[in-house]
Design a protein that fits this description.
Blueprint lengths: L2 H53 L3 H17 L12 H6 L1 H21 L1 H10 L12 H22 L2 H16 L7 H24 L12 H15 L8 H7 L4 H5 L1 H22 L4 H20 L3 H28 L5
Helix pairs in contact: 2-4, 2-8, 2-14, 4-6, 4-7, 4-8, 5-10, 6-7, 7-8, 8-9, 9-12, 12-13, 13-14
């Protein structure tokens, strides 16, 4: 083979190698967007779950019951509001918006509550799956996320309604988490909880009916009813503290059962339940059906509170308490539809 032919052969082999290398590079680059997309999806799912875990425990105690309160209060129409004929379909269509309003206002509070060093230690014992004790998020990033979500809650409230309540919840959260309102006094703790329930309830109602609560679209009786709900919470919300005495003791919190003792705390719940189960249907002058529903459910709570004293039993009792609260939320609607009926 002469020199020219040898050079041609070498050139062909060299070109072939370059083409092959180029093909491999193109193949590698073509796979990278897929890998990037998969990685982005995994990261999105991971961070979505991290955020979700902050509010998971409160979905059944705050988001669901307060959404129900807002929708049911709006449906009561002329009983609580100046809307004489609320359209059922329109109010029900606002359920996602009411739920979102409750959740977006809860989220920064929950992050602030769970990012505290004492809370991380407590959750490590009782709820190790939460975002902070499980190491899904650092304290620094949790604080950054919290401060970015407060403006988001304000913007959402500007758009959907409930701005005054949103601002009240921000103040209450600061008092509860950062000023020690949840830790230093059981009376202050219950008071903040009651004010929080009031803020969620009235805000959810405003979003559901898309009216300004202080702009007099509500009947005068609305405020006494809201305050009644606040009083119910103030005197019986320690139901949620019965099953978490170990964690609260570890954190040094002064909850009702840790201040007055388990025995007297249970009796305080029983007495409050007995009073409010009669007072609330009387407030609305309802029929025997409403009395029966309220008193039977409260009777179950009283029985369980006084006789079932394990952590799992107390957790179930608290769930039943939340169900009973929803029954109270139904009463203005019952007043509207009863018309002398059994309700």
């Amino acid at each position: 083979m002469d020199a020219k032919n040898a050079a041609d052969v070498l050139g062909i082999h060299d070109m072939s190698g370059k083409v092959q290398a180029l093909g491999e590079k193109v193949h590698e680059l073509s796979e990278r967007p897929i890998e990037i997309a998969i990685s982005a999806e995994e990261n999105l799912l991971y961070h979505t779950k991290t955020i979700w875990l902050f509010t998971y425990s409160d979905l059944k105690t705050i988001v669901a019951p307060e959404t129900a309160f807002g929708i049911l209060s709006a449906l009561s129409g002329p009983i609580l509001t100046t809307n004489q004929s609320p359209r059922f379909s329109i109010i029900l269509s606002r359920i996602p918006l009411v739920t979102f309003w409750c959740w977006i206002n809860l989220l920064p509070f929950a992050i602030d509550n769970q990012r505290q060093p004492e809370a991380i230690e407590e959750d490590g014992e009782n709820k190790p799956w939460r975002s902070m004790p499980s190491g899904r998020l650092s304290e620094k990033h949790a604080k950054w996320l919290m401060w970015s979500l407060y403006p988001a809650a304000i913007v959402a409230s500007l758009k959907l309604g409930g701005l005054k309540q949103c601002l009240a919840l921000i103040f209450l959260g600061w008092w509860y988490n950062d000023l020690g309102g949840a830790d230093h006094s059981c009376i202050t703790r219950n008071f903040i909880n009651a004010c929080g329930f009031l803020s969620y309830a009235s805000g959810a109602t405003e979003v559901a009916s898309r009216t300004e609560l202080l702009g007099s679209p509500f009947k005068p009786i609305a405020w006494p009813w809201f305050l009644t709900i606040g009083a119910v919470v103030f005197t019986s919300v320690q139901t949620q503290d019965m099953y978490d005495q170990a964690g609260d003791g570890l954190r040094g919190r002064k909850t009702v059962p840790l201040v007055v003792g388990d025995h007297y705390a249970r009796w305080s719940i029983a007495i409050a339940m007995a009073i409010w189960s009669v007072f609330c249907p009387t407030f609305w002058q309802l029929g025997p059906g409403s009395y029966a529903m309220s008193m039977i459910t409260s009777g179950i709570i009283i029985f369980r509170t006084l006789t079932k004293r394990s952590v799992p039993a107390d957790k179930l009792t608290f769930r039943i308490w939340n169900l009973w609260m929803v029954m109270l939320y139904l009463m203005p609607l019952f007043k509207r539809i009863k018309g002398g009926s059994w309700l």
